[in-house]
Specification:
The protein has one domain: OB fold (Dihydrolipoamide Acetyltransferase, E2P) (Beta Barrel), CATH 2.40.50. It is α+β, with helices and mostly antiparallel strands and 175 residues long.
Length: 175
Amino acid sequence: MKFSSVCFAVLMGVCASAWAQQPQKGPAAGKDLMAKNPAADASASQWNDKPLPEMKGVLSWKTLGEVKPVKQKDKFVPEFAKEVSALDKKEVKIQGFMMPLDMGEKQARFILAALPPSCSFCLPGGPEQMVEVQAKTPVKYGFEPILLTGKLAVLKDDPMGLYYRLTDAVVTVAK
């Protein structure tokens, strides 16, 4: 149930962002709200079949995937590998695809996902493939992967069902 709240928020953000980017001209402006966005399709299709290449000094999604759900009393909680737990409260670099949570061209809070969103109604992975980002300054929304630096929080019992949060995040240029 808790993770479904995150799913709903992500879906609403993706749908709202897609709607906001539609050209609104002429008397039939409302007709094409669900039309495909060629820029999004071209960019996403470039990355759909394979994960992002790993980069030296950048936290990999494979490492973040070293977690399994464990039942405690009446709920499941994440059990992280030691390597992942050691990253808690550390500054890391991570790359991924932005999934907006709010309307607007720039996003201060969003989801960074391992894979690009390929459907407005589907999440591109489980909680181990998503990081909630709280940016230091709003980041311009785009379809290309971005590289961020920030402080990683490994979440052991997040009410939204998330496993990771990156705070004070800033866009970093790859070297």
